[in-house]
Design a protein that fits this description.
With 219 residues, the chain is an alpha/beta fold. It is built from six helices and eleven strands. The strands form two sheets. The chain has a six-stranded antiparallel β-sheet, with helices on one face. Strands 7-8-9-3-11 form a five-stranded mixed β-sheet, sandwiched between helices. Helix 3 (92-103) runs parallel beside helix 5 (133-145) and helix 5 (133-145) packs parallel to helix 6 (163-182). The longest helix has 20 residues, at 163-182.
Length: 219
């Protein structure tokens, strides 16, 4: 379960968010500037709230009262950004295996399973410059999965893609959602910010709130 109850100040913007989620997918949605990316960054440990608490299952990631603020690495949360951010000098295979090699972690999913899930078997020998936008994003998702995360965060992973590339990658995201629901023991819930290309509807859940059109959360 992901539990978030935080307050933060972003320039002149005050953000207050509170929700609990146990679903396989939780989507944050709201208008531009509502604080969606900032909230995702706080969960990942890339920025710090003013006060509050963030926890995944029985692990507390941040607690202002108890002085807990785990580093990004200690949180074991993978983050897929709008841009793939692959290492340009490495092949797809080396990009995929970089995190287990660098951190010494055991992936929560076997390499072959991730490759098959995302349909990137024929791309393993290529470098990022030889990939389409949709292929790069699939590799970025695969790299995130193979880092052994407790949670996979996706910050509008389709935003930089045209409609054709969005249509290419959406089936893989849906497949990933079904796999996460089928084998809950391998990885905790997946979160992503809603992008225009994601048309699935999720049942309602508690909402996040702020002083100006805060992002809402749906599970």
């Amino acid at each position: 379960m992901l539990s978030v109850d935080i307050e933060a100040r972003l320039g002149t913007f005050n953000l207050s968010a509170k929700f609990d989620s146990t679903a396989g997918v939780t989507a944050l949605f709201g208008r531009s500037g509502a604080g969606k990316t900032s909230l995702v960054h706080m969960i990942a440990g890339l920025s710090r709230p003013l006060r509050g608490r963030i926890a995944v299952d029985d692990m507390v990631l941040f607690d202002s009262e108890k002085g807990i603020n785990l580093s990004t690495r200690q949180r074991r949360i993978s983050h897929v950004f709008q841009e793939a951010r692959l290492f340009p000098h490495l092949t797809v295979r080396c990009n995929l295996t970089f995190s287990p090699w660098a951190d010494g972690r055991t992936p929560s999913m076997p390499f072959e399973e991730v490759v098959d899930l995302l349909g990137i078997g024929k791309l393993l020998g290529r470098r990022p410059a030889k990939l389409s936008g949709g292929e790069r994003q699939r590799v970025a998702i695969g790299r995130a999965l193979l880092s052994g995360p407790r949670i996979l965060l996706m910050d509008e992973p389709l935003a930089s893609l045209d409609q054709a590339r969005k249509s290419e990658i959406l089936p893989y995201l849906d497949h990933l959602r079904r796999e996460a629901a089928r084998s809950r023991s391998s990885m905790s819930p997946i979160r992503w910010k809603r992008s225009r290309g994601w048309r699935k509807r999720w049942s309602s859940s508690p909402t996040a709130r702020s002083r100006q059109s805060a992002p809402s959360a749906k599970s």
